[in-house]
Design brief:
The complex is a heterodimer of chains A (171) and B (200). Chain A has 171 residues and is mainly beta. Chain A is built from three helices and twelve strands, in the order H-E-E-E-E-E-E-E-E-E-H-E-E-E-H. Chain A has one domain. With 200 residues, chain B is α+β, with helices and mostly antiparallel strands. In chain B, a hairpin with a 2-residue loop joins strand 2 and strand 3. Chain B is elongated. The chains are: A mainly beta (171), B alpha+beta (200). At the A-B interface, strand 1, strand 6, strand 7, strand 9 and strand 11 of A face strand 1, strand 2 and helix 2 of B. Strand 12 of chain A pairs antiparallel with strand 1 of chain B, so a sheet runs across the interface.
Chain lengths: 171, 200
């Protein structure tokens, strides 16, 4: 009788290898960039007041993107996911990690209100289990590729509801 | 009373709940740019729905109410809910693959010609975000591979800047041999010795 069955040993080695390949911290690498802006669109980064966005601006993990009335915003993430945000929207890049060299892949967006058009990129191709869009009423798991999400205002938290692109709308 | 008789009453109660809730919480699946149809799963505490047919949508009236069964939207509804977001969706990034002579930062002849196309695309799209990513084949030492793929990527960056692209719109990274284009038994697979340029 063997002490460790070979299959179990192989599984243990795989698990060990996975643990060793822990992703490097994303540090200050951008998660993406702004491609187009129409009307009032802004980023809230940490506790700073909203800053207007323009084409070429870099987007980072944890950024809160908001659009005003009649406004829209186009963003391309580092894995070539493309995002279109409609008017009166709030989208957070909760988690973004694209480090194929170290096996680190993660993509979590949160749409609190408004409309989002998305075509997913490399992350979903490499691992369809890691990409999702959270909303106040559901979680959307993305196995590919082109989809739209719309959320009526009113389901988000009061703090989220207060975050608008214009400074006058801040709490 | 018979449980069957209660069923219509239950449906009525449920549909009344749905009427009071927000009506425009919608997830809609569309065909990919290449025509293939993907798959999304909509889930909350009350249930889940699978979308795998182009044009199918589900509504999610609230966090405690299960997503509806997939169905097409009413005419005009897609434009009303998503028109602006869809028009804001950027064009797909353009990708170019450049190849090098073995153990060197010198581009192959064909790739030198392709560099002109990279420049033209960046100008046409008014791109402010160009990624230059170096990759290596699995030949030899991984640390050396990463160093070589980085030098190649930096060389391409320098060529693009010299040709007139703004340095601040360019970003250089190296993936070593971890993300091969071709899964090959040949350790010096020439198709994996490459620099990928993405024009966004």
């Amino acid at each position: 009788m063997r002490l460790i069955p070979p299959r179990g040993l192989a599984a243990a080695i795989c698990l060990f290898a996975l643990l060793c390949a822990a992703p490097l911290p994303a540090a200050d690498d951008p998660a993406g960039s702004v491609k187009n802006v129409s009307g009032e669109a802004a980023v809230i980064r940490g506790k700073t007041p909203p800053r207007p966005l323009k084409p070429g601006d870099r987007i980072y993990e944890k950024d809160v993107l908001t659009t005003g009335k009649n406004a829209s915003l186009g963003v391309i993430l580092r894995d070539n996911t493309t995002l279109g945000l409609g008017p009166d929207s709030r989208l957070v890049v909760e988690r973004f990690l694209f480090a194929p060299a170290s096996g680190g892949l993660a993509q979590a967006l949160r749409l609190s209100r408004g409309s989002l058009a998305a075509v997913s990129g490399e992350i979903v191709k490499l691992n369809p289990e890691v990409a999702k869009v959270e909303t106040p009423v559901c979680s959307v798991g993305i196995r590919g590729t082109h989809f739209l999400v719309h959320m009526d205002p009113g389901s988000e938290t009061p703090e989220e509801a207060a975050q608008k692109p214009g400074p006058e709308a801040q709490p | 009373m018979n449980a069957r008789r209660l069923l219509p009453l239950l449906f009525l109660a449920l549909s009344l709940c749905a009427c009071a809730a927000p009506r425009n919480n919608v997830v809609l699946l569309l065909p990919d740019p290449d025509g293939h149809v993907g798959h999304v799963e909509v889930r909350n505490a009350a249930g889940a729905a699978q979308l795998d047919k182009a044009g199918d949508a589900v509504r999610i009236p609230g966090p405690g109410i299960a997503p509806t069964a997939p169905a097409a939207l009413a005419p005009g509804e897609r434009e009303r809910l998503f028109g602006a977001a869809e028009r804001a969706l950027p064009e797909r990034p353009a990708r170019f693959v450049l190849y090098f002579e073995s153990d060197s930062t010198r581009l192959t002849r064909e790739s030198q010609a392709l560099l002109a196309e990279v420049l033209a695309t960046a100008r046409r799209r008014d791109s402010r975000d160009v990624s230059v990513v170096g990759h290596a084949s699995r030949q030899g030492d991984e640390a050396l591979n990463i160093a070589l793929s980085r030098r190649r990527a930096e060389h391409v960056r320098d060529l693009l800047v010299k040709a007139g692209l703004e340095p601040y719109s360019l970003e250089v990274t190296s993936h070593g041999s971890a993300n091969p284009l071709v899964q090959s038994r040949r350790h010096n697979e020439p198709r994996n010795r490459r620099v990928e340029v993405t024009v966004r």
